[in-house]
Amino acid sequence: xxxxxxxxxxxxxxxxxxxxxxxxxxxxxxxxxxxxxxxxxxxxxxxxxxxxxxxxxxxxxxxxxxxxxxxxxxxxxxxxxxxxxxxxxxxxxxxxxxxxxxxxxxxxxxxxxxxxxxxxxxxxxxxxxxxxxxxxxxxxxxxxxxxxxxxxxxxxxxxxxxxxxxxxxxxxxxxxxxxxxxxxxxxxxxxxxxxxxxxxxxxxxxxxxxxxxxxxxxxxxxxxxxxxxxxxxxxxxxxxxxxxxxxxxxxxxxxxxxxxxxxxxxxxxxxxxxxxxxxxxxxxxxxxxxxxxxxxxxxxxxxxxxxxxxxxxxxxxxxxxxxxxxxxxxxxxxxxxxxxxxxxxxxxxxxxxxxxxxxxx
Length: 361
Fold this sequence. Notes:
By secondary structure, this protein is an alpha/beta fold. It is 46% helix and 13% strand.
């Protein structure tokens, strides 16, 4: 009975953390111990570990992937999520993924998540790991999870996941959302977030170009963008070779025919790398349970991506999906003044909590 209660506390602590969405004030306090250590494995930066001061009795710990944020483990949402989970009795490990902190999408992210997941049990003396990933990090996390066994992995939770990287690229460039029956969402891109997403795609994919000159030109533009002085797309395009121009066009041209033509001109190195990071048809070996959480008003990754992900995953595993009305992209934007919207999300997350309880953590 005691372990069951501890498991329930851990599960609903996780639900509470997600419901707060990084907006709560419940960061570390006297009841939470936070320890900063060195790299969890080769190639990582610092590692933060959040534990309940009274000790944790769970047989699993949470490995949290922070996503493409320049603050990494210091992102303002991480302490709220991690501390609330720890208050539920679960230890939380937050490694610094160096590439993700540099806001780069890399095929090596898959190996890094897998490496970190295998390191957690020995680090904390637990039997299994629960993977918790935000935004882009959900892709490498699911691909890593597909390599793991039931003896290693208790389950996976994602917030704002993608399913098909090509579809996210199309949305970022054109604002067009891949249709899903009569649930086609009516979303409009936020210009600032669109510009940010375009630079993340361009600077990441530049490493998959063959021409070092193109790579250097885009790297210089990325540096200026991060300094708040991004060059115009036209000026960047004028300095690039054909492959670099195709890359910029594929993520910046909003007209459907021009966008598609640019996509057709992308070099093989880019299309092959993007295919390795996409989830469509790549997760058939994933059999451990999954909880998908997505904001209905997400303007970075449309919620239909999690619907499509759910539809493929339920062929091989137990998967639950919660579309939250108070959320945008991995963060709650609607305050408690709109009680019924947030309360409705709480009910959906409660069902997710019961699912997490069944994972035998």
